[in-house]
Write a sequence for this structure.
């Protein structure tokens, strides 16, 4: 006959129950914590501009969420959305983002803000492009063979640049066209060292303008318009996304307070606005 020590048996049962309770609490706490986190795939130009350092702390102070921002190109952000690896996308509007929505991966497109990319170049502007239209400016740079620096890793701005070369009917030549920069900051530094021309996003120029010898020469043209939007990932396709958190963040950045942040951003750091509310 099997002998059993009753007190020891009871102790073991109590320990098992306690451990089970702890596992349940831990699982619930983990699930709850995940619901509090909002994973945001964000355009590199937005991320590196610094505006999120205003949005995120104020949002987290007011709402019971924590933002996990992941910088990415538009293509990378959209890939994350297609795989359900983000709760929302904060990126430049493009044909790709519209296709993403039309295919049902994204819902509730929020228009947040805009700015205009710029063409920068040497102060003395040897190509004579100051105040010109972007396509005319590209033609003059190519005709004179003046250095033009491109960023091979900056996919969003690279796409705009390629479109402008195509519309200008020009295939850039290696003797004056350099595609070596790794990111937008590197692009500006290389252009500055070579006293060349470059197409860049305004916030990146504002961050470095006091350290370089390049001016904004082509500005405020509709061809260079950047519209920044938020897209909620469709919970019907990905039930585990934090849709409530994504919507709460979108509502905040498009609220009156969010618009005030957009209007003020850049004025204190750079002396001029970097973005404009949509």
């Amino acid at each position: 006959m099997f002998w059993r020590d009753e007190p020891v048996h009871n102790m073991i049962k109590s320990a098992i129950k306690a451990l089970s309770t702890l596992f349940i609490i831990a699982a619930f706490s983990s699930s709850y914590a995940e619901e509090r986190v909002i994973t945001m795939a964000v355009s590199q130009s937005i991320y590196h501009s610094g505006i999120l350092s205003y949005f995120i702390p104020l949002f987290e102070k007011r709402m019971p969420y924590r933002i996990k921002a992941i910088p990415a190109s538009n293509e990378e952000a959209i890939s994350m959305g297609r795989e359900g690896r983000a709760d929302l996308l904060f990126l430049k509007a493009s044909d790709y983002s519209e296709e993403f929505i039309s295919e049902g991966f994204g819902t509730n497109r929020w228009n947040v803000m805009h700015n205009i990319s710029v063409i920068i170049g040497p102060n003395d502007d040897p190509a004579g492009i100051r105040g010109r239209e972007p396509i005319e400016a590209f033609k003059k740079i190519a005709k004179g063979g003046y250095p033009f620096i491109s960023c091979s890793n900056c996919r969003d701005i690279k796409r705009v640049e390629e479109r402008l070369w195509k519309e200008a009917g020009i295939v850039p030549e290696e003797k004056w066209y350099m595609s070596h920069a790794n990111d937008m900051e590197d692009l500006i530094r290389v252009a500055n060292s070579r006293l060349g021309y470059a197409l860049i996003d305004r916030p990146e120029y504002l961050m470095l303008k006091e350290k370089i010898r390049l001016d904004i020469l082509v500005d405020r043209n509709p061809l260079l318009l950047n519209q920044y939007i938020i897209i909620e990932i469709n919970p019907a396709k990905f039930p585990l996304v934090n849709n409530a958190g994504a919507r709460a963040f979108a509502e905040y950045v498009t609220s009156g307070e969010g618009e005030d942040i957009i209007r003020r951003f850049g004025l204190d750091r750079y002396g001029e606005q970097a973005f404009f509310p949509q």
